[in-house]
Amino acid sequence: MTVTIPAMSGVSIAEIVTLVSGRYNGPADRVIRGVATLKDATEDHLSFLGNQSYVPQVASSRAAAILVPNELDADDPRFIRVAKPHAALADVLDRWFNTRKIPRGISPLASIASSAKIGANVAVGAFSSIGENVVIGDDTLIYPNVSVYDGTQIGRRCIFHSGVVIGSDGYGFVTIGGKHRKIPQVGIVRIEDDVEIGSNSSIDRAVLGETVIGEGTKIDNLVQIGHNVRVGKHCLIVSQVGIAGSTELGDHVVIAGQAGVAGHLKIGNGAQIGGAAAVFHDVPDGVKVMGSPALPFREYARRDVAIKRLAKKRD
Amino acid sequence: MTVTIPAMSGVSIAEIVTLVSGRYNGPADRVIRGVATLKDATEDHLSFLGNQSYVPQVASSRAAAILVPNELDADDPRFIRVAKPHAALADVLDRWFNTRKIPRGISPLASIASSAKIGANVAVGAFSSIGENVVIGDDTLIYPNVSVYDGTQIGRRCIFHSGVVIGSDGYGFVTIGGKHRKIPQVGIVRIEDDVEIGSNSSIDRAVLGETVIGEGTKIDNLVQIGHNVRVGKHCLIVSQVGIAGSTELGDHVVIAGQAGVAGHLKIGNGAQIGGAAAVFHDVPDGVKVMGSPALPFREYARRDVAIKRLAKKRD
Amino acid sequence: MTVTIPAMSGVSIAEIVTLVSGRYNGPADRVIRGVATLKDATEDHLSFLGNQSYVPQVASSRAAAILVPNELDADDPRFIRVAKPHAALADVLDRWFNTRKIPRGISPLASIASSAKIGANVAVGAFSSIGENVVIGDDTLIYPNVSVYDGTQIGRRCIFHSGVVIGSDGYGFVTIGGKHRKIPQVGIVRIEDDVEIGSNSSIDRAVLGETVIGEGTKIDNLVQIGHNVRVGKHCLIVSQVGIAGSTELGDHVVIAGQAGVAGHLKIGNGAQIGGAAAVFHDVPDGVKVMGSPALPFREYARRDVAIKRLAKKRD
């Protein structure tokens, strides 16, 4: 499977090089008719080197041209050298090769509360439900089967994938005589501009006040964000991560897949949490933690080496 | 964002103190117009101290009155002392400040099988699907985009959030000659009274007989309950927990976020399983386990200290 | 709760023994009216021994007949000995006791794009959304509230449970000046024949090319499959597993519940990944790994023993 352009005429390598401001010394008039991975590419395809581990695939790839990072220590007449191959790839796909048909406008099969305020150029897919007093900013795209509870505030240019639930009740109970009484969750969720949320992710409303997802943050699939969590701007939260109630993330935080963060913690600006880590303590600005329970990277590595040696010694 | 009461008139602190049976020595006729966290509260707000870690926020809070636990070792004329601040908060919110608009009645956009038996005062949201022979007890609230498969039995006063799936097939296959043959899942799910299930959680039907969620149990978001699991009464199962097939939980079990419990196990009454724990063995009544693989708390702590010392020694 | 047959007449043990090619020495004309677990069975029920840990329940079970493995080292006139009790159970359920009402045909409450190509005898439940240019093979069953994005290719005899999302955008961003720019995800998802996907699982479309789920693979609930992942044939992927982008699985791979596999890895044919494992490296053919981080089983066990001894010594 490869992506082919709508017009059969194709686009020349010269045009691509100009768009991405690349350095290229090969034949510039060759015509590109699709974009593919190194493995899948054929003679009329553009490809890209997105990760050093794929360097061995370059030689055998049939691609006509390959976007590579400026600093790549190898040579090939097919290379188009750029600062960031992924950014160049995005440029090329957006300009010529993105022919996907995504939802446009408000589907007649969506349910929109009469009190909701919907911005300009908003798309809401079939079977999506927009509750009372919801506000949605301009150019936001909501795929089918999304549930937005009452009172949610959504910024501009957001993307919510199918199965997303925004504003469901936080997990708040008080136990009296062995029974769990529900604490009404009367706060809301506020999502700032340019946030993307992956399929089947859940973001709970606050017990009081707001659960907040900051501007430009990207959330992957099946992620849990608890009530009163505050996520900063431009964070990356990868699939199946869970963040428990009232925890606050700074800006530019990265949390890798399946990691969990306990409640009432502070995760500093630029902190990085490794895949499958279990975080039970605050993480200062810029610190990287790993493991379960999560430890600063050096301490994690030190313990790992110590256990490895211990197990060896006992043989 | 704060919660404001519908009538602008507000409610006096005296009325609040009476409702929650609190002890209070400050000015009783002051009018409260909303409830907010310590940080967000302004001069006409009630706030509460839900967790000792927030004590440092009391001094700087602008709240007019604060619900605090009787035993709090500090003093402030704004304190309303009560046995359980969260319970008092719930009382106040339920009485005066819960203005949310939740679904009422059966949405004309829901799909209800003709053989389903729906109790009195049941709400079913848009795009929720209720399968054949489902029974739903009185006063149960089903949000939009919930899927209830055929044969499911649901008690009274339950709450199911958006994206919940009840009664999907258990993961049952028998491998013959390298291929996996499906074992028909002909049992059902039975959910007792007063169960709440968070958004995007899945509860599989039994292969034979029943998967059971006991009375008063509260399940958070993105939780997986396998086929033939039996969860006891008044359990707390936090977000992203997974419980594999045929495992039985006693009553009052607490399982913290992202923990997993293997299949065919018995988890005793009042057992507690820590966050991100991976449980591969039975847990006796009242025992607390942690870690991956999960160990009784003392053993877990002993190993943790041993590894820490070992890593230090090697420096 | 037990399963009862539609006709009240029942089926004789002799008929069951013939169907499953079993060995049986008890009274053959006795009539069976339902199938139940050992614990739940009454005198007119067939039961089965699916797991050695249930042997103690045989003596007290009231079942009239019990499917057991040929090699079981015990005797009882009620035993019907077969090679695989689960397979025999499936045979009996399919033949006489599966009375469930599952969706048939295309629901008038589903949304099917006009460009979608739907095979013969396909079922699509209420509130399921089938995007543009989707292809669905014959005899595939899609439950309510499933979202299939544009361009997805689905084989024959597949089963997708409620809440499944196929073809949502992969998590692809390039960070420029601290902001995350979206890389268009222009590839598709291709699902081969006989694949079952559990409720609330997400399978992302490829950035370029295909995300592939191989023939006969069975995926449980709440599973995440990242963009450009290639899953081989006849794999078992248990609940809440996450597989990050571009990772390739061979055939007959088994991944137990809540395990995670990092991106760009190769997992060999017949590899086995333990529950809650966190895999950060390639796994060769046939190798079994466990733990977080995941290690080959022997190394995992060696470290576990070493830590246990160390902790004991320090007491």
Written description of the protein model:
Three copies of one chain form a homotrimer. Chain A is α/β, with parallel strands linked by helices. In chain A, 12% of the residues lie in helices and 29% in strands. The first copy, chain A, contains three helices and 36 strands. Chain A has a ten-stranded mixed sheet. The radius of gyration of chain A is 24 Å and the shape is flat. Chains A and B meet through strand 18, strand 19 and helix 3 of A and helix 2 and helix 3 of B.
Helices of chain A, by number, come to: 3
Which regions of chain A have little confidence, pLDDT < 50, spanning 5+ residues? 4-8
| Annotated CATH homologous superfamily of the domain at 3-97 in chain A | MurE/MurF, N-terminal domain
CATH hierarchy: architecture of the domain at 3-97 in chain A: 3-Layer(aba) Sandwich
Distance between the termini of chain A: 51 Å
Our estimate of the beta-strand percent of chain A is: 25-35%
Largest sheet of chain A: 10 strands, mixed
